[in-house]
Design a protein that fits this description.
Layout: E1 12-15, E2 21-24, H1 29-37, E3 45-49, H2 56-66, E4 70-72, E5 88-91, H3 94-97, H4 100-116, E6 119-124, H5 136-143, E7 146-149, H6 155-168, H7 175-181, H8 189-206, H9 212-227
Length: about 230
């Protein structure tokens, strides 16, 4: 039988400001390598792209933990331009919100950070080559950016994340619980956090141990909510 200790041995950790560690695995190791390489990036900008819940925001927190990085909302670039708030700037969900109203601001931000020897981390679902950008100068800047993909976490990583999240709450669960949950849940870190949170709250309120039947009930609750 798999033990929970066996599930966490093969992954490196990166501390983040949120207090949680980022688990390094094959699906994200290249992105982690770029964060470790900071500030020695060939281009001022790094774009990390991948599906929702794959860990992009968590990795941005890892960068914040080692720099003076500030997070800007993309909408902050649509009005009168302000100089960068720090030498390292992070913008989340760029491709979901980027419009022609933001292009001049992003262009000036890139140029200012380059002139200052700073860095720009852009998180997105798709790579810059697929973004709709009207401003030719901005397109050329984004074409020169460093780009790295995070793919969805595999079963081994999701299992390790679940174990760690339970351990962070001082909860020990059997390998059977993890083995049951992994193939039946959404493959994302956010889903893992939600599963652990809901399971912990129900177990506490009902004064029950965390068992396979309890995990099954929580997973069924999540599935029913998704169908509504």
């Amino acid at each position: 039988m798999i033990t929970t200790d066996q599930l966490t041995l093969d992954f490196d950790h990166r501390p983040a400001l949120s207090g949680e560690d980022f688990l390094v695995a094959p699906n994200n190791s290249q992105a982690v390598g770029w964060i470790d390489q900071w500030p020695d990036w060939p281009s001022p900008a790094l774009c990390i792209f991948g599906p929702s819940g794959c860990g992009k925001s968590h990795l941005a927190e890892v960068l914040r933990s080692k720099t003076d990085a500030k997070i800007l909302g993309i909408d902050q670039l649509s009005g009168p331009y302000d100089p960068p708030p720090a030498r390292t700037v992070i913008i989340e969900d760029v491709d979901r919100a980027l419009t022609s109203h933001h292009e001049q601001g992003l262009f000036h931000l890139y140029n200012d950070l380059k002139e200052q020897g700073g860095s720009l981390l852009l998180n997105a679902v798709t790579p810059p080559s697929r973004w709709t950008i009207e401003l030719a100068d901005l397109r050329s800047r984004m074409a020169a950016a460093n780009v790295v993909e995070i793919t969805p976490p595999d079963d081994a990583l999701i299992a390790a994340v679940l174990v760690k999240l339970f351990q962070d709450r001082q909860l020990r669960v059997s390998g059977d619980v993890i083995t049951y949950a992994v193939p039946r849940m959404e493959r994302s870190f956010s889903a893992a956090r939600q599963l652990v949170d809901v399971t912990d709250r129900i177990a506490l309120s009902e004064k029950k141990r965390i068992t396979v039947p309890l995990i099954k009930r929580v997973l069924n609750m999540s599935e029913n909510e998704g169908d509504e």
